[in-house]
Amino acid sequence: MKIAILRGSPCRNGSSSLLADNFIRGAVEGGHEIMDIDVAHAEIRPCTGCKACGFNGNPCALNDGMAEIKAQILMADMLVFVTPLYYFGMSAQLKMCLDRCCSINRQMTEKRMKSALLASAWNEDDWTMTALEIHYETLCKYLNFENKGEVLGIGCGTVEKTRESHFPQMAYQLARAL
In Å, how far are 88, 140, 157, 171, 175 from 125, measured between CA atoms? Predict the structure, then answer.
């Protein structure tokens, strides 16, 4: 299976990257092909809402790095959303990338892709990830994604805390179970 990892953290070596790296290790060991895409540092601009794309695959009016990212997304069988938790949602960088995917809504919906969510948060409260979980579940319903799982790393405020937690192993096991 071709898996596109969409890294949405502005911190390249942070806790969410640690989760992504462990997922990738498990996926590669399982024989899957990985496309590791750093959307947080890509040259992309926010959607302007111009509707030039018609939400059905027409070219986007913006000419930036998103065209290549969308091509990679459409080559994938599975998308893995990787994000730190920022104010109880995904990072702005990952959200901007997803907003720009409106031009390929139809293609993604028809493809019936698989997906997973890897997230890390400083906070340890049991409600910490609730808003992100609801957003992700709604995204899966809207785009006909088959949710293969979520690793929601609470109490992962530093890489050291994350490394010492069970969340990296959970990310690895999620990938191995694919």
Answer: 12, 25, 13, 20, 26
